[in-house]
Amino acid sequence: MAIKKSDLYSSLWASCDQLRGGMDASQYKDYVLFMLFIKYVSDKYADSKEFRPAVVIPQGASFKDMIAMKGRSDIGDRINKQVIQPLIDANNLLARTDFPNFNDPSKLGDGKEMVDKLTNLIGIFQNPALDFSKNRAENDDILGDAYEYLMRHFATESGKSKGQFYTPAEVSRVVAKVIGIGPQNSKASTTAYDPTCGSGSLLLKVAAEAGKAITLEGQEKDVSTAGLARMNMILHNFPTAIVQTGNTLAAPKFRDKNDQLKTYDYVVANPPFSDKSWSTGLIPASDPFQRFAWGEPPTKQGDYAYLLHIIRSMNSTGKAACILPHGVLFRGNAEAAIRKRLVKSGILKGIIGLPPNLFYGTGIPACILVMDQENAQARKGIFMIDAAKGFIKDGPKNRLREQDIHLIVDTFTKLADVPGYARMVPHQEISDPKNDFNLNLPRYIDSTEPEDLHDINAHLQGGIPNRDIDALGDYWQVLPSVRTALLKRAGRAGYSALRLPIADVKPTILDHPEFATFNAQVLALFNKWKKQAKPLLQQFGQDIHPKALIATLAESLLHTFAAAPLIDPYDIYQHLMDYWEQTMQDDCYLIAADGWTESARPRVMADDKKNKTKEKPDLLQGRKKFRTELIQPALLVARYFQAEQRKIEHLEGTIATLSQQMEEIAEEHTGDDGLLADALNDKGKLTKPSAAARLKEIKRDPDAADERKILSEWIALAEQWATETAQLKTKQDALATALLAKYPQPKEEAERLIARQSANQLTEPEIITLVVEDKWLATIAAALQSELDRVSQTLTGRVRQLAERYADPLPQLASNVKVLTAKVERHLKKMGAEV
Asked: What is the residue-averaged pLDDT of the chain?
């Protein structure tokens, strides 16, 4: 069975534990990522029959050869000399600086410590489930995803000063999408360039959007990070990508035949924010590439230096996107002069403000500047998006959700004005003296939430202000009669009152026919989508790529729910994408690799006493433990074994009742002077043996009648509890046997511990029905129901809040105070106090 993506990731991350000792994340990442690289290229190319494989694996330099080095006293030196160096010699794209030193005692320890660390590290990648030659299907970037997963974790652990080698994948996707590249406008000669490419994630996201093999080129100053980028390109199946090492501003490596900067169709970059040493090795005033004709950036602020390099690297129709700190939008002096030239040129197409704390090297908010040389002179405005509020907390950082990415890209692509979020700002407004080419987004987009103002008149005279009720206009447009059912005139203009007790607000909304009609409309949209999605899911198999499936399903869902009232289609989209990330993705990768029937087979778990695995079994039979990856037992129970499950639940209820009765008797009668105090054992517990012994002791004692009665009652309960518990165990074992017999049987004869009931085994159509209808679509339907519940809860909550806020006007409160004061005075007088 193929390894699940989530299991692959956790296995790889576990390898990091082998090296944590003497290194921080910025160091040990190089060793782990190299192991992933050498394992992958060995599996893919070591036995390749291609005339010119993308990566040449010399004889004796594969991962299998590393296995033979395990436990050797000179293991680190052997890896350096017999694996890494021959690999470099055979592949021009690789350099020694790309790889760590496996014989460095300062990082790996001396002697046996180094041997043990490297031996254990190789052992993790020796896991048969990590056979990447079998796990990589056509166009399947599962290994590239794993590489990005590791880099994300390493960037998180590396801290503020060392996490800049990785641009969050979500931000990279936004950048790649807003420059407009796609299969329809890409070909082999299409060029993309990143002057500060880090580990290469931005370039790879551009290539993913292109959907084909385009020309990728990048430059990175840090030699070890450049090595990560080269390995990343190979793992993502772009072995021809060129990554050069060096300072892009001082010594750009990509030049044309005239020794000028090469120009590209697409340029993307996430340069170091506010680089204080950007001019090292460079005299801007005499720059041979004329990058600073619009002005020279400040000595301690290098943001515009990189931006000007990017603009100079765009061809006549080139598109570009650059991630920069918000300061570039409003800082003055030299930057203001450059910004003015940038706006007037028309090259700046759009600005996208991002949430704070997205990046690993800094917590400050950043923005994406989108540029387009095509039709620049005719451009009359800049499209601005303030997306600062669209994110989710993810550990110590913030992260863009799938819905945030989609909303940004959709809005930018359509250039759609969205109040409080996005608008096209004319150049005339930007150049107005009151703005003076300041591009700070709050000047042009008011994204502040409206303040919930209290109404003084309502507090004084009662009633709910109509302005607050009218603010719920979206609800009243769909549920006009619900407003009438909830509210009435308050007897004065501009105010309303609640018709019914506050406690009746929610049931009134839920029981109203208009709300039922609304529910039916939304469910009809879901059924419409399900009718389209179900055949796609049922026909999914080994010849279909999981990412193509989810892309089709998600876009269809978003399009369908665009017509839904009171529900944000992007929220529904997010539910699907969350479920994909948590469960459905793993299911689909298993099916794509092994097919439906094979993926549904239970897996016999081997005890891992050494590592004390935390994996829990789904089913037990005797001492055998089983995991069911695709179809969990609850799905089978719900469809095929409901009667058996009801009997088990009935027994569980009976046992719970008996336990409670026994505990009540024990609590009431086992105190110091309790009737059962003498029936406790040496540990102070009332048990069946101790109770039986005490009953035997007082059997003929006439003075112990009450104790004998209570003991007999408790023992009868205990015996019934034992009988019912034994029955429960029998029925649970029988159900487990029946469930195991229902699954497709494990192939190995040694694992045939399941009852021979082959006629009852699931057929492939039944497996597909269970997974598609009972698991996938049922989960998505439940998520939709949660959105419907949220609509009623939001409306209920706001109406109740307003009703409670103005329930007691000031005169009523004053009257209440007067009544209560008089009551207190009367009580005080009765007590003899002077008032």
From this structure: 88
